[in-house]
Structure formats: C-alpha cells, structure tokens
Amino acid sequence: MSSSPRAAAAPALPAQARARRRPRALLGRALGYLTLLVVAAGSAYPLVWMLLTSLRPRNTVFGGGFFPSPDEITFDAYREAWTGLDFPRHFLVTLVITAVTVAGVVALATLSGYAFAHLEFRGKQVIYVTLLSSIMLPVTAIVIPLFLELDTLGLLNSQGGLIMVYIGTSVPFAMFLMRAFFETLPRELVNAARVDGAGEFAIFLRVMLPLAAPGAATVVIFQFMNTWNEFLFAQTFLQQPEDLPLQPVLYSVVGQHSTDWPLLCASLTMSILPIVVVYVRMQRRFVAGLTLGAVKN
Amino acid sequence: MATATAQRRPAAPPGRLARRGGRRGGRGRSAALAGYLFVLPVAACFAVFVAYPFLRSMYLSLTRWSGFGDPEFIGLDNFDHLMSDPVFWDALWTTLFFTLACTVLQTVVPLLLAVLLNRGWRFGVVFRTVIFVPAVVSFVVTGSLWQMVYDPNFGLLNRFLDDLGLGSLAHPWLADPSTVLPALVLVSLWQAAGLYMLIFLAGLQGIDPALYEAARIDGASPARQFRHVTVPMLRNVIAVVVLLNVVNGFKTFDVIYVMTGGGPNRASEVLGTYLYGLAFGSSAGAVPSFGYATAISMIVFVLCLVATLVQVRVNRRARDVF
Question: Which GO terms describe its cellular component (chain A) (predicted)?
C-alpha cells in the first residue's frame, strides 16, 4: 500500500504536473501538500503535547513554552505513576484480559468463519445473518441486562465474567472478517482434501487453518485494540480497584488528580504505548482488514 | 443486520445448488454436521451474551424495577413517561444533533483527505500514519487529553489562541452550554477521521485507473472527475461509512461520559449517558431505575435499527439507478 497509490491509482497526475510545470498545477500541488501538513499537525499536536507534558516537572506545566527546556526534562511523573498508581499491576491485568479475549475470539471466529465460507448446511444464511445482526446492536442497549445476568451467574466483579462478555459480544464481527477472508481461498482445496478422505475437522485444522494466518492477524489487531481500549463494560462490571484494567483506572486517576498534568499525561502515554506499537508495526494487515471488511462487503 | 441480507442475496443461488449437491451423499451430511458443530460455540456465545440480554432488555423496559425484589410489570408506562420527560427529549435532540454533525463531518473530511492523499505524495505513508494514530487511542485517553486541551486557564487551545494574539477568543469551552457540543464534535472528528480516511483509501485503490484516464481524455476537470467517477464508484463505501457514523453517533457514550458527564447542566447529555446514569447512579442520585433506563435503551436500539433499514433501502434504490 505504501507506494501503490503513486504507482497504480493516479500515476498520470504527478507526472503530468511535473511534465508541464504549469504554474497552476504547481500551486495546486503546494496547496495540497500544505493541507496534508496542517491536518497531520492537528492530529499529532495534542499527542505530542501529552508526551512533552509528561516529561515536565510539575511546577513548569502551566507556564513556559510548548517544548520543555532540555535540562528540566524529568521522568518523575512516570516513576510516580509506576509506583504510586500501581501501574504494572493494572497493565498486567489489561494484558491478561486482552490476551485471553483475543485468543478466544480468534479461535471461535476462525472456526465459524470457515464453516460459513466453505461448508454447506441447512439454514446457513439465516444463522449467519442472525449472528451478524449483533454488530448493529448498540452496547448501551444490553449493558444493563448483561450486568444483571453476570450478577445472577455470580460473575460480577470477576475478570472471567468480563472476558466472557468481551468474547461473546465481539465474536460476530470477527467471524464476519474471517468468513470474508476464507471466501478468498479456493474451495477446491477443501474438495481435494475431501476426495483424499480427510475428515471435516482435519481439513479445517491441516488444510485451511495454516492458510488463515493473514486473516487471523487482522482479527488479532482489531480485537487487541478494541479490548485494550474498552471502557463501558470494564467500568460497569468490575468494582474491586485492584482488579481493574487500565481504562477505568485512567478514568478514576483523571478524577482524583485532575490538576497533576504530568502524572496524568505519563499515565495516558504509557497506556497507549502498546497499541501504537502494535498498530505502527502491523499497519498493512490493518489496512487489508479494512479492505476486507468495509469495502468488499 | 438487514444489510447483510440484502448483500448476500445474490450469493444465495449458488449456495443452494451446492447444498443440494451435498445432500446426495454421506459426505454432504458430515460436512453439514461439521458446519453446525463449528458454528455452535459462536451461536452459544450469541445466545448468552447478545440475544438473551437483548430480550431481557425488551421485557425490563415494560417494568418498574430498582434491582431489588422482582420487576413489576407496568406495560407501556415507561414509554408514556418518556413522552413527558423533558430530560429525555433534550437528550434525544442532543443525540440527533451530535450524530448529524459527526456524520456529515466524519464522512466529508475523511473522503476529501483520502482523495488528496491518494494522488501520491512524497511521505504519503507518514501523513497517513500520523493522521490515523488518534484512532487507536482509547475514548478514555482521548477524553482526558482533550479535557486538558480545553482547560479554560492552561489548556492548549486557549494558550494557542493567546499566542496568535486572539486571546479575546479564549473560552471555557466545556463549561459553556453553547460551546460544549461543538467542542465534543471536534474531539470526535479528531479521533474518527483517520479510520474513515483509511476505509476510503482502501476503496479508492479499488477504482480502475482507466476510468480516470477516460474522464481526463474527455476533458473532465478534477472536480468533475470527483463528482462523476470517484463518488459513484465509492457509493457502497460511502454508504458503509455513513451507516457506521450514524450508528456510532446514536450509541455515543464514552467520550461524553469521560469529558463532561453530560454537563454542564445536561447541555451535553445524550441518550447513552442519560440511561447509564439512571441505571448505575450518579445523575439520578436515587435508587437505580433499571426499567426506565432500559426503555431508553430500546429507543437507542430503534434509532440504530431505523438507520440500518434506511441505509439498506437507499442503497438498493441507488443500485437500481446506476
């Protein structure tokens, strides 16, 4: 994707502009560049400011320029968040909840996505559409009964209960992505394996699953991001302060330390680090997933 | 939900044929059995964590219940009460306004950005990456960060205006009922623009360059190319983006809950924050009213449903026209 826009989609335009060197085309080019610069600056500005503020000593936050002077840079705020706010614990909690959820969602979505793409059974369309309908169901419409249901099952205040809710509510979208991915794989593979006498589960496990890695990677990124960032369910279903994942913790930190900006900014920065790393490293799979999910269907 | 029905319909005949073929032998039966087994775990999850809660919501919306004892069935009284609840109407209008503003901005701006970015630039990938980064940041982080940006005394925005010599425009953005909504819409745009831009970019990659070639040979200006090639070719993608925007707008909760809690004086109260407050404390300050809150959640659901159905209708008609 990185070079393809220039190479494939609009090859003639820049070339044309360069060839003719018309003043108007050059001006348009410059304006376009300027627009992109302004938009990118606007996107990055608050985040850069957050990073810089997290490195300031508390007493210079409300005065001084945009950039802190090099000699006043300090990691005190990070130290404080790390020890004072028990950050490692909540980080670990979030990581475990996210990892288990992602694993569960990928497993269930791969299995069902494959079935909907390559197996034939009665009522397939109806079942598929019913399951998929939950994508359009607003979470605020089910948060109350989910709360009551977890309470009845004794799973309120339990990370296991939260994970089950996460898996249950996110698997339909992941299944949709995996089905779209499996449909890009030739069915002849399945048929050939069947002719060879392989059982259905063996076909799935040995033939199709090894080919599913790119699709699964997309699901992993989306799910990792959504679960890591989820707030409403975590805030509602968990109450023990020490069991909380990062998002509700950050929410309460903002409430309690609303004037300690370096501490706030350090906490926020640490919380988004894993996400930003995952996204920047796996950007291509993310874009591929969007193509699969939003454009193809 | 209906989206999928409409779009899958063309695929149905081959599926039916294959099924008929499959039923002929034992292989087909074992494949069908495997199909059910493979789908079973997801169906079970769906039943327990989506379908049952949803049905219970429907029932609870017809009851009065504080969470203790048994819900008391009161028919449509909750909805009757909604009709004369000024807070509900205000929250509904706020939700509609917020949704409309977000949908328009978060469709038009990302589309224009995608078209611009797609023309090929040195450092294009860097621009794309930077513009997208806010989309991976959580609502809580976004909300907390922008609370500081909008801070009346030391916030980034007011100091920025001050530096430009526009200090007189400095404003308590989130504390003034007349600026709080635009301020929240801007936050939403900041966060969402990158994602929708990527979706549009993915769509643009799928347009045959020959179409632009032909348009250019016919002497079409870039604006006309946009109007007559890009927009029609991206029709389905635009429809998806609009639908996502509308549904996300109707169910808005997190950013507003984090940034203003629906304040000041309920000026930014939307249906999501109102019903959450009624069920889980804070805004009511009284006993939880699960019945009344689920009645509001049913209204949110109906809004999303209507948006989906309208989208399917419009999409189908558009397909007939083109």
Answer: plasma membrane
Does one domain contain both B43 and B92?
A: no
- Domain residue limits at B182: 86-321
Q: Are residues B105 and B233 in the same domain?
A: yes
B41 plus B92 within the same structural domain: no
Pair B124, B43 in one domain: no
With CB atoms and an 8 Å threshold, state whether A136 touches B27. Answer: no
- The answer to whether the CB atoms of A200 and B113 lie below 8 A apart is no
Say which amino acid occupies A218.
T
Q: Are B120 and A14 in contact (CB under 8 A)?
A: yes
**Beta-carbon separation of B38 and A112 below 8 A:** yes
Shared-domain flag, residues B106 and B38: no
Q: Is residue B70 part of a domain?
A: no
CB A118 within 8 A of CB B38: no
**Stronger pLDDT, A135 or B150, i.e. the higher one:** B150
Question: pLDDT tier at B17 (50, 70, 90 boundaries)?
Answer: very low
Q: Beta strands B63-64 and B72-73: pairing type?
A: antiparallel
Residue ranges of chain A with per-residue pLDDT less than 50: 1-12, 17, 297
Q: Is the ipTM of this complex over 0.85?
A: no
Look at residue B184 and give its three-state secondary structure.
helix
Nearest CA in chain B to A233: B254
Residue B11, classified by CB atoms within 10 Å of its CB into exposed (0-12), middle (13-18) or buried (19+), is exposed
Chain B neighbors of A53, CB-CB under 8 A? 148
* B49 vs A130, A168, A232: nearest CB: A168
Contacts with B99 from chain A: Cβ below 8 Å: none
pLDDT tens per residue across span A138-194: 888 888 889 989 988 998 889 999 999 999 999 998 998 888 888 888 888 888 888
